[in-house]
Amino acid sequence: MLILVLLVVGAKGCLDARKNRSLEDYASNVTQIVDETNTLSESFFGLLEDPGELSVTEFTSEIESDRSAMDGFLSRVEKLSTPGDMQSAQDTLTLGYQLQASAMDTIATKMPTALGNEGRDQAIKAIAGQMLTLAGADVLYNQITRHSIDNAISNNGASAPEMPRSAFVPDAVFWGNPDNIDAALSAVGGGPRSATDNLTHGTGLGTVSIGGVTLDPSVSTVIPADTEPAVDVEVQNQGEAEESDVTVSVSVDGGSGLEQSIPTLGIGETGTATILLTPAPAGEVQLEVKVAGVPGEQVLDNNEATYTVSFE
Are residues 204 and 289 in the same domain? Predict the structure, then answer.
């Protein structure tokens, strides 16, 4: 009987230790994600407070990167191994990161319009509203999630540092005000907007060629194998204002895009971006050519095309 009691006590002790380890591991994983999210906040709001010498294209690219990082945090949260006693905390944690990811997605989507002219005011109001959503996610975590995790650790006799606070939005009142968003974005690209920002902005994809051979999106084009695989992409400024840092990308068979920028495009001018395909393609491939929309550009239907090319 004594041996049986000892076995039962020992088994319970092992189970308790295993359970506590799983609780501690969960708390540690959440801590890491929250700390990294707070670091992202420093980068994101630091960029808004001081865009420095970044061009509009570079600025929006940074915002897109922050949006992608937040999507990554949500994915990590959703994949957390969650002990039963942490399920309530996991539910609110997931909701909070869903709110943050959705808010960052809207901010990134609205940013090009907010940096342009047409639709600017509405885009800025939308961004300010999403700042309040980000702040709401902070409140949800700080008031519910982190206490739920701390209590589960304490109630089970586990050991873990107190959960960190979420501080993604440094000042919800300030960043939730559209006027402050407007002022911050007015500094992007070298300073406040001028009267030219009331003009229509737009670009269009022109002739695309390799080694002097013009590509046709409706048929397959044969390129001799000894031709340097450099794609010449013509872009026309079809708007009413000079554009700068017009980005062109070329991808092969759906791979990562290779980019080149045209520094400036005057009104009605056509510029060329030359992009060397590396590694050199072989056989038949699909080339997807895109011209990134400039700030304020509303029509993008004529900014991209796909070509079938055979390197023989």
Answer: yes
